[in-house]
C-alpha cells in the first residue's frame, strides 16, 4: 500500500474519533471515499450508532463512489440489524476497492464483510494502520472479546499521591486547565463512574460542563447499599442519565426512591468480604452495551478494580504540591506484601497541562 493509502486511512481514523462516547454499543468507525486521488465522501458513526460511517460517506459521494476506493477503520458489517449491511451498501454503490484497518471480531461479522466484498469482485486489502485502529477501538474490542468495557481510572492528586487533605478538602488540587481537559475526556467515554464513597464525600454531578457535548456521558455510581446523597444526582436526571449499581441487600426504600426519580438500578453480586464484585459489575455494564468507562474513584473502589485486574489505563493529573501522609490517598488498601504482586503499567504519554503534569499508562498485560 502507498503513502496516499496511509494518508487517507489516517484521515478516516481522525473522523472515527469523533464518535467516541457517542455511539455505544456500536464501534466508532470512520470512512473516507477517494476517486482518482480526490476525497469525494467522508463519514463517521453518528450518535446512537446510526447511520454507520460507510453509509454517511457514500451518501456524500453519490455517483462519485463508483470505481472509488473506500478507506474504513473497521471491517464493514455483514449482518442485518436496524439497517442493511455496510458491505452491501459499498457493493451496490460500485466501489472497486476497500482498504480496512482491521477485521471485526464481532461473531456477526468476523471476516464476513470482507468476504461479501471479495465475492462481489471488489479488491479488499486489510491491516493498514491496524495498531492505531485497535487503540481507537479498544473499548469495542474489549466488550466483544473480554465481555467487559475498557476501563480508564483517572486520579487528580498532589505530587505525593494524595487526593484530599486530612479534613477532606480537595477543591482544587489541580488547576483549571487540567479540570477542563478532564471534561473533554469524559465526553469521549460512554460513562463516567465513581464509587459510593466519592459520591457521599463530593456529591458530584459527573457531567461534562466545560463545553456542550454531542451527548452527555452516562453517569454510574456503584454503591452496595444505595446510601447516596440525593440532591444533586436526583436533581440532574434531566441533564444526563444515571445508573446505580447496588447489591441484593440495598433497602427497598432507597430503590423505590431512585426508581421514582428516574435512575436505572442494576443489581450485581457481592464479594464474600462485602462490597460489590468488581468483575460482576463490569460484565453487567458490558451486557448493557457499554464499551468505554471513565472511573474517577474513590480510593477503596479504585483499589478493588485494580486488584481485580480490570483497570486498563491510568490517567494521572499531578499537581506540584505536597499534602503529607495524614491526607487521603488516591488509592485505598490493596493488601500487597511483595512488589512482584503489584500490577504494572507502561507509560504511553506525559505532558504539562498548565502547572500540572498529565501522564497516561496502559496495563502491560493488556494485548
From TrEMBL:
Binds 1 zinc ion. Pathway: Cofactor biosynthesis; riboflavin biosynthesis; 5-amino-6-(D-ribitylamino)uracil from GTP: step 3/4; Cofactor biosynthesis; riboflavin biosynthesis; 5-amino-6-(D-ribitylamino)uracil from GTP: step 2/4. It comes from the Bacteria. Its EC number is 3.5.4.26, 1.1.1.193. It catalyses: 5-amino-6-(5-phospho-D-ribitylamino)uracil + NADP(+) = 5-amino-6-(5-phospho-D-ribosylamino)uracil + NADPH + H(+); 2,5-diamino-6-hydroxy-4-(5-phosphoribosylamino)-pyrimidine + H2O + H(+) = 5-amino-6-(5-phospho-D-ribosylamino)uracil + NH4(+). Its cofactor is Zn(2+). InterPro entries: APOBEC/CMP_deaminase_Zn-bd, CMP_dCMP_dom, Cytidine_deaminase-like, DHFR-like_dom_sf, Eubact_RibD, RibD_C, RibDG_C, Riboflavin_Biosynth_HTPR. One of its GO terms (molecular function) is 5-amino-6-(5-phosphoribosylamino)uracil reductase activity. Residues 3-124 form the CMP/dCMP-type deaminase domain. Keywords: Hydrolase, Metal-binding, Multifunctional enzyme, NADP, Oxidoreductase, Riboflavin biosynthesis, Zinc. In the N-terminal section; belongs to the cytidine and deoxycytidylate deaminase family. In the C-terminal section; belongs to the HTP reductase family. Converts 2,5-diamino-6-(ribosylamino)-4(3h)-pyrimidinone 5'-phosphate into 5-amino-6-(ribosylamino)-2,4(1h,3h)-pyrimidinedione 5'-phosphate. This is Riboflavin biosynthesis protein RibD. It comes from Thioclava electrotropha.
